[in-house]
Amino acid sequence: MNWLKSTLSAAVGTQEPIYGPEAIQSVAQQASETPYTVLSKDQLRWKAYQYTNVETQTFYIMADDGNLFMVQVIYSNIAGIHTTAHFNTKIFNLKGDKPHVWHTDALSNCMFDEQMHSFGADNLTLTLNEEGDAYHIKSTVNADSIVDIKFTRKAPGFVAGKDGTSYFGTDPKNPWGSMYHGFWPRCAVEGTLTTKEKTYDLTGRGVFIGALQGMKPHHAAARWNFINFQTPTFSAVMMEFTTPPSYGSTKVNVGGVLKDGEIVYAGASNSVTHTASAQDPESDWPEPTSIKWEWAGKTADGQDFTAVVDGPLGKRQDRVDVMGEVPGFIKTIAGSVAGTRPYIFQFSPQEKLKLKVKVGETEIEEEGTMFSESTFIS
């Protein structure tokens, strides 16, 4: 048992000591002076750090025909010893009459271009164009999920604060961990995803998010909330995580609201509230049934800005047991040793919710399409 505990500690880590909230330098501190920075091509580089971290590029697609998709590359390093990469695709069956189509495939012979802007592996390319405003993803890694997609940015991307990063550690000058998010909230999508049964037309709207967790993920965050909301005029995104008690259960929330060609608002003064929930018997987590998302701050020209999405989540689209493929006895011990029990609840209400935007004294309401996640880890 002691050997197994020490092995699990090396792999997933035991709970950390209580360092307190002063041991996280939230990106909100940067955002108090610089609410956001336009995401440059240089900031789109893969980092590929040689220490424990998880780096992702995730593409969400809301097709014009009503279908919802996710495409993702995950590149991770464990303790500077072992590097892995996976390509994930998901086709959501929003009607609920059939299972979602989910594939996760290990990648071989991974490589980056000289500028670290593009990624490749056997049977996969993820390429950023010269202008830095479009990604092209092509994959034949899985014969039942053949991908050929182009994402073109239609509004500036952004990071909260100066660099989009929260830093962890008791010495701010020498942090031992980090959390980064960069967003392209409003993109035009074209292309296809082909299964053995059919070819899906992905023409529509999309969101790209680059993220890096520069430490053991469950040490950085105990909870997550994410929303991608698309209306004809606006694209709204928000990402919130709550640290474990070791960092004072600190909430860090970044997000923005954009139109074609412009950032209306972006920053770190937002909030998420689970206004109703029900205990899920399988995961034993309080699954949200209604959520209120609020963006608040100033526009670039100094006007007061608020935006709200508030309402029921409808029938849950999926509940993802992150450790579902781990053998049962290891899963149980990992939970008791590290305090981790990660589940992701995914929602996309079929009854349209509204985005209510107020800029100065001008108010606008628009129905839109939503995808959201609420994640419980520890």
Automatic annotation (TrEMBL):
It is found in: Cytoplasm; Endoplasmic reticulum membrane; Golgi apparatus, cis-Golgi network membrane; Nucleus. The keyword Acyltransferase does not apply. One of its GO terms (cellular component) is endoplasmic reticulum membrane. It is a peripheral membrane protein. It comes from the Eukaryota. Coiled coil: none annotated. PANTHER family: CERAMIDE-BINDING PROTEIN SVF1-RELATED, SVF1-LIKE PROTEIN YDR222W-RELATED. Ceramide-binding protein that may transfer ceramides from the endoplasmic reticulum membrane to the cis-Golgi network membrane, and is thereby required for the biosynthesis of complex sphingolipids. Belongs to the SVF1 family. This is Ceramide-binding protein SVF1. It comes from Penicillium cataractarum. The lineage of its organism: Eukaryota, Fungi, Dikarya, Ascomycota, Pezizomycotina.
